[in-house]
Each structure stands twice: as C-alpha cells, then as structure tokens.
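In this notation, each integer encodes one residue's backbone shape. One such record reads:

___
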Amino acid sequence: MGMVDIGHVDLLVQEGFYTNRSDLVRMAVRNQLALHANVVKQAVARRTLTVGLQHVGREDLERAVATGQRLQVQVVGLARIADNVTPELASAAIESVTVL
C-alpha cells in the first residue's frame, strides 16, 4: 500500500466506517476469503490439510515409528506437539511440518 492508500484508510477511520486501520484490513481480508471460499475449500481437500488445531501426541509419534511411517503434519491454523515428545522422537516420526 502506498501513502495515498493509507491516507484514504485513515479518512475512512476518521469518518467512522472502521474502528482503526486493522479493522479495515481484517474486513478486507475476510471479504476476499469469502469471495474465494470454494477455491480454498478445494485446496484444503486436495492437499489433505487439517483446519484449526492439530495436536500431535507422543502416542501418535510412537505408533508412526513402530509402523515405519513418517508423518507429514499439514495444517491451516496451529500445530501443537505434546510436551512429553522428545526431539529425537519427533525427528524419527515427523517427515515434514507445514503450518499455514
């Protein structure tokens, strides 16, 4: 955004259309996401992404190691690895982590 764009945003804030700059940006992003909702939904399905919070527990990782699998953690949101997971176990069980 250029300085004139930011000035226009500030005018809209001063005129009461938005609470602050962040409010306008949040609304603009949400409008664009709504506009492209079908494309996003298809991409999530095609890429087999978890949406929201994905918790990776020690048991999941131990099971992957025992079966010779390596996990690909792919999430739109937040990925959390349990506190009781050692770095060695995580390295042995997780092939990749993608968080969008």
